[in-house]
Amino acid sequence: MKDKSLELSLRAGHRDRLRQKFLDGELAKYEIMELLLGYAIPRKDVRQIARMLYKKFGGTFPILCASIEDLEKIPGLGHNTAIFIKAMQQIIIDGYRSEAAVQPIFHNKEQFDNYAKLMLGGRPTEEMHVLYFDDNLHLLKDELHSTGTVDCTVLYDKEIVKNALGMGAKFVALIHNHPIPGLGFSEEDVEITKQLKNALLNVRIQLYDHFVVSGGILYSMKERWLLE
Predict the structure, then answer these.
(1) How far apart are CA 194 and CA 199, in angstroms?
(2) Which of 29, 79, 120, 160 could potentially form a cystine with 177 if both were Cys, beta carbons 3.0 to 4.6 Å apart?
(3) Which of 204, 181, 193 is nearest to 226 (CA)?
(4) Which residues are CB-neighbours of 81 under 8 A, at least 6 positions away?
(5) Hey, what's the torsion of the CAs at 212, 213, 214, 216, to 10 degrees?
(6) Could you report the per-residue pLDDT of 5-24, keeping only the tens digit for each?
(7) Contact at 8 Å (CB) between 58 and 38?
(8) How far apart are CA 200 and CA 165, in angstroms?
């Protein structure tokens, strides 16, 4: 009983020190994860779990983007803790979206890159999202347009045009992911994007860009001069 009480006391003291290091801005990345996991798993030493997460996935974003099934493969990390990690991911995504509603979404390129990677990185199948903007490029809505397979998704021009007109959007952007890392855009990606661009121009709405998240990198169709 004494040994158990001593263990709990030592653990509480360690977590108090972690909290103070956090307030002092001195925590290593894995220690920040350790601090958070301590709230999800209060009666267990989670230091080794935090280290295994970084060893397995390689960084904070890959951890947050990992599937619940992959997270559960870490010894000592159960279903509830995996949900806790995915909830952290969603909180950050929602924060980015809230910020994009009050200032132009591309005002901070690094922030948009992080948003895109966090939203689509690690997805097992392709997802196509449509971003609708007002005339000042404030985000009106980020809509999941379609979910496909590991190497394919679809785009419905008429649906996007209808939705854009319905919410008074002046700009539209596309963003999807490639679960199998490649070099960026396929010929089919370029073709369907140009078709959408023309359909939008007919109703005086501009296609801002098409982005793809592939292999941890965000590619822009506009920057590659593929929309000309």
Answers:
(1) 9
(2) 120
(3) 193
(4) 37, 40, 41, 71
(5) 150
(6) 434 444 566 777 877 777 77
(7) no
(8) 10
Residue with tokens 């995504």: 93
What is the sign of the dihedral through the CA atoms of 82, 85, 91 and 94? negative
Rounded distance between C-alpha atoms, residue 4 and residue 43, angstroms: 11
pTM over 0.90: no
Judge whether 65 and 53 are in contact, CB under 8 Å: no
Calpha distance 148→124 (Å, rounded): 10
Residues 6+ apart with CB under 8 A from 143: 129, 130, 131, 132, 163
> Where do runs of H (alpha helix) occur along 72-213?
79-100, 109-120, 157-166, 187-201
Map tokens 């990198």 to a residue.
Answer: 217
For 179-194, the pLDDT digits (tens) are: 887 767 888 889 999 9
